[in-house]
Each structure stands twice: as C-alpha cells, then as structure tokens.
# Entry
Amino acid sequence: MSPSTPLPLSDRRVLFVGGKGGVGKTTVAGALSLGMAEEGERVLLVSTDPAHSLADLFDTRIGDEVRELAPRLHGLEIDPDGQVREYLAEVRRNLKSFVRPAMYAEVDRQLELTRHAPGAVEAALLDRVTDLMTDREGAYDRIVFDTAPTGHTLRLLALPELMQAWTDGLLRSRERSDTMRKGLERLKARDEGDDLSWFRTPEDGPTDARSKRIREVLLERRRKFARARRILLDPEATAFLLVLIPERLPILESRRTLDTLREHRVPVAGVVVNRVLPQEGEGEFLEGRRREEARYLRRIEREFDGLPRVQIPYLARDVEDLDGLREIAAQLGLR
# Structure
C-alpha cells in the first residue's frame, strides 16, 4: 500500500477523530471539517475533550453553544462539568416526580454524591453525544467529533452498550416489583374476604401511575441508547479516524485503540500519520531522524495493514489560520 491512500469518508455522516494527546487530532478534525464545508456540506465540529483546543485553532470563542466558524461550518465545545449538572438536573426532576416530598432531601444528597462518582462525566457526555448523533432534524450533513485522549474516548464509546444493559436490568427489576406488588394486593383482598381477587387485575392507583411513569422514562432512555449504538456500529453511517505520529508510544497506543474499537465493532475508516519529516533538507540530525522515522513508518505499515493511511508532512509553521487548515485538508484529499 502506498504511503497515502484515499480515506473512505464520503458516505459517513458521523466521524470520530481520536488518538493520543498531542498528535494533532484537533488539527486533523478541524481541517477535515473545513474541507468538507468548503466542498458544500453543512458540518458540525464538536469537541468532547475537556482540554478544548478548537477555539485556539480557529482563533475564536466557541463554548457550549453552536457557533459559526466558517461558511457551512459550525463548532461546539461540550462543557463536561456543565453537562453533568444538566444531566443530574434532569435525573433529579424525574426522581422527584416518583417519590414522596419527604424523600426530596435524600434524592438531593444521593445526586450530589453521584456528581463525583466515576463515570459521571462519561455518562453525561454520552447523553449529549447521543442527542447530536441521533439529531432527527438533519441540520447537518456531517458531524465530526474531536475526541478526548484515547482512554477517555474508549470508555465513552463503550457506554451505549453498558447503559442499554443497565436500563434493561432496571426494567426487569421494575417488572418483577410490579408483579410482586399486584400479587400482594390480591392476597390482601382475599384476606379481607374477596375470594374473586385472583381473577381481577388490581385497579390503577397512585402506585400504578408512578410505576408507569418510571417505565416510560426507562424505555425512552433504552430507545435513545439503542439508537446511538446502532449509529455507532453502522459502517455506512459512522467511522473512527485514528491520528498518530511516527513515534513508539503513539504507535503502541493507537494499536491498542484499534484492537479495542474492533472488539466493540466500531468501524475504523483509516489512519492519519501526522508530522512526517519532508525528504528535502540536509544535516546529520535530520538524517538520523529520518532513519528513525522510516523504522516507525514501516512498523505503522505492519500494525495497521489493510487500513487506508494518509501521511501529512511536518509543516514549516504552526497551523494557526484557515489557510493552514486548508493545507492539511488538501493532504487529506479534500480541497
């Protein structure tokens, strides 16, 4: 396979760009998004990385509300802490509709503990990412996610399956609880002299209405995560793009990421090898670096055999404006 081959991105509506911190994934995500926007597509570029760099890349304030970055290109930086607050506020509203007012203080206490629990940020982020992925209004032709460093991203991508299983468990528990409650109500009626109680369904009351609301909330969350999982695993709709540089640690981490993505059946579109040294230039230092780099490039070819790969040369200057992003987009096969 040649050093650069076309990336199969033309029909993928949802794109995740990820890799080890510091390899240039934000730059690649920005260039990819700008290139597609300048080809006439409506693109939303979303940062899920707590250490947002999109605003610096486009030299503008973005924040947690959609903002125009260029014609047909909009950006969004999801605020993890704000997302946790919003997520828990929704949970609090739901819980308080299911319990007696005397329990409100305990609900608040438990949710305050949950705010600092492991996985709270990922669960809140997943809720927002799911909303964006399943946007039924079709406001954008493409949604590009500039993801957090690899470990955080893999936990996020694994959550739809875990959350769906968790919700299914809650629904089964709820059904068992309802069945047991109705059985107890029949026994109580029989003890009170109603021998026909076994042949009637107990009338709906406050408990039944509350159980119905709980079930509706759980079913809606189950449907939501099921939709996200279907989109995430659909190779015609979604793709993950791995970004790395020709050095040992990024190669090792990217290989582990590839294995994990394949284990979860997340489609991988290809690999972007960033900051490859140009062939021109002389000197002992550069020659030594090129020999070292050539060894790593051969390793990348072995480790990611079968995946399309694009090499982006080390530029003489930092990417700090739209022209710099266009230069990267051209290397990616976009205008």
Notes: The two ends are 23 Å apart (CA to CA).
